[in-house]
Design brief:
The chain is an alpha/beta fold. It has eight helices and seven strands, in the order βαβαβαβαβαβαααβ. Helix content is about 45%, strand content about 15%. Bound molecules: nicotinamide-adenine-dinucleotide (NAD).
Length: about 250
């Protein structure tokens, strides 16, 4: 049994990841902004999940959460999954939204890595999985902060992989394609309501036109890949980007 920390665990992908790790026999510290939404995970998976209140943008919050876990347990796997979206043309993009997206999706994984690395180095074992996106390697208009942050996550992953290697730590990124979670549904709804698009047109605009499989990816498909890349079947893999996008 391994101990696993998943951020953004109350969200669409996060919940699927919690289920996958628990199903595989692991213990999960499920972290999100509020423990309210995590309570049902504790109920569904009794004695397999602990809900943790954690704001990944806040250094003190990150340090306290990691210290509280690591003072009593070894922490084997960390999944940096928390994320948010905001769409606007660059000239209209609010500066505070730029800062927020960078803080949640780039500074957050940096802070978690910074505070978890000393514990993982000491135990000579660690698996860090950073959730980037197909937007870590491609661009869509009006997503400047998201695309920049997700490209940044790839840089963070590569440096952390180099620094972790001699201590038995692997660091990889999973790049999801379109998954129908609240994060994506909100964008679809905005396009339907504000731009007068039909849902089919919104899907075409959001569910990127160049996807070979022409379908949503499921949260379970992402969770399976996150599990795989942190598992004993992936011990030789570090600093890699695993696109789970249906061929984008
Ligand atoms: N859904 C997709 O199509 C898709 C595609 C590519 C990448 N991703 C990435 O997958 C990850 C999960 O996305 P999702 O679709 O499950 O979104 P979601 O909106 O369902 O869940 C995101 C979770 O992150 C949490 N969160 C936000 N700010 C936080 C903070 N400061 N501290 C801690 N938690 C915070 C939210 O409360 C929420 O529970 C994100 O990093 C997202 O960018 C999603």
């Amino acid at each position: 049994m391994r101990n696993v920390l998943i951020t953004g665990a109350a969200g669409g992908l996060g919940q699927a990841m919690v289920k996958k790790f628990v199903d595989e026999g692991d213990y999960v510290f499920a972290a999100d902004l509020s423990t309210e939404a995590l309570k049902n995970l504790e109920v569904i998976f009794p004695e397999k999940v602990t809900a943790i209140e954690l704001d990944v943008t806040n250094s003190q919050s990150v340090q306290e959460a990691i210290d509280s876990i690591c003072q009593n347990h070894e922490l084997h796997v960390v999944v940096n999954n928390a994320g948010i979206q905001h769409r606007d043309k660059i000239e209209d993009f609010p500066e505070e939204k730029w800062d927020l997206l960078q803080n949640v999706m780039l500074k957050g994984p940096f802070l978690i890595t910074k505070y978890v690395f000393p514990y993982m180095k000491k135990q000579n074992y660690g698996r860090i999985v950073n959730i980037s996106s197909v937007h870590g390697e491609m661009a869509t208009p009006e997503k400047v902060a998201y695309v920049a942050a997700k490209h940044g996550v790839i840089g963070l992953t590569r440096v952390a992989a180099l620094e972790g290697a001699e201590y038995g730590i692997t660091v990889n990124a999973v790049l999801p394609g379109p998954v129908k979670t609240p994060l994506l549904v909100k964008q679809l709804d905005d396009l339907v309501q504000n731009e007068g698009m039909s849902e089919a047109e919104a899907l075409k605009a959001i569910v990127y036109p160049k996807q070979a499989m022409e379908r949503f990816i499921t949260a379970e498909e992402i969770a399976d890949s996150v599990y795989f890349i942190s598992s004993k079947h992936a011990t030789g893999i570090t600093g890699e980007m695993l696109s789970v996008s249906g061929g984008m």
